[in-house]
Write a structure and sequence with these properties.
Blueprint: H1 2-14, H2 23-41, H3 56-76, H4 81-98, H5 100-103
Helix pairs in contact: 1-2, 1-3, 2-3, 2-4, 3-4
Length: 116
Amino acid sequence: MLTPVMAAIFVAVSGTPVDHVSAVWLLFVAVAATVAAAVLGSYVPRNGLRPDVGCTPCAAMSAMTVVGAMMALNNFGSMLIGPALAIAVTLFGFAQRLDQTETCSVPARPNLPDGD
């Protein structure tokens, strides 16, 4: 459900009319949008409770790769390097998000006295 929205955003951010790009460019943008949707979708809680995003710097890093993909598309327009970089950046963010439990653990809270 989020993939078409991300694809539309990526095409709009690139500033390139769809009729001026190749089918390979569109395919690369579709792949980048799919991975970006997976990254952003990983923030949605599965059980209806509050999201478990981990510690703030690591959680922000994964989401910021979607912004990085948009920057790559904006800078390179209709050139294939833009969507190729967008795929690479979003894949990094997705891998970071999947591996976050080992690399970005939240420290346990110390046991504080009850004040008695």
